Amino acid sequence: MPENHVRPDWDTYFLEIMRAVATRATCDRGRSGAVIVKDKRIICTGYVGAPRGLPHCDEVGHLFKESIKPDGTKTQNCVRTTHAEMNAIIQAALHGVSVNGSTLYCRMTPCLDCTKAIISAGIKRVVCERRYKDDEISRQFLKDAGVELVVLSNEIQQYPSQDGQKN
Asked: Catalytic one among 66, 85, 136, 155?
């Protein structure tokens, strides 16, 4: 008798695809992916990488910018790359595909810049695996804009060189 196959729900299915997209990312600090879906169809994908025609972190190293958080601690951000969520929205725009009313699947709660793009693009739902550091403003913006946010784990995404250490 064949073993029982458990068919994944839609969120699980698209998160698995997002993980596959993330394998194309070119910054080892946060190999993230994003999948934008409308009516249970993938309309575009994106992953972390440098803008078209510019060198990638995997090729030339990171370009760090130090920031000071509200509590006074320092953090390092690699600014060479564009985030997966933004790249997915850009890919849709580049190819003339509307993301209005869609769902975005991603690794962690979007950063503030990606959050603003998500809201402005008309994306209505965001599903992510875990939280991003310092995501309170992003979460509030999404709530205020009426964008449903589903976070599967309250764990904060960890990655190399996150807090003041260069690798």
From this structure: 85
